[in-house]
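Hey,
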Amino acid sequence: MKLYRSDKTRFLAGLILIVIFYSLYYIYFVENQYFINTSKLILHTIRFSITILIYFIGTIHLGKLKDSWMSTLWHLIHISGLTIMTSLGLISWFIIDIGFDLKQVAYTIQELLISPVLYVAMGLLNKSLNKNVVAVSDKQ
């Protein structure tokens, strides 16, 4: 038994899950992080965990689509972003405190990785490219 009837349903399910977790993250964590008395390690663990969760949701929902390039692009973007974030975090944690500007770069990368905008952009790109492929094959 198939869980999803079409790629569109699978894509929308992934989008809904990402929007839910993104919203919960911002409502319960980002908006209240200044009032939470926890260590930096726990705060960074929460940020990293939500990024990994969104990555796995996208992997599950984009990995089964007919167009496998979307899954490859998803992996490339997330692994690159996670590598940059982790490198900056480890440098800050073990070597020297990185400046405010580099911390903002890491936060911006994390925002890109967890926001539904990346997921939607990939869906729009896929839809646009599929229309072009259909139009070219109809002309031949």
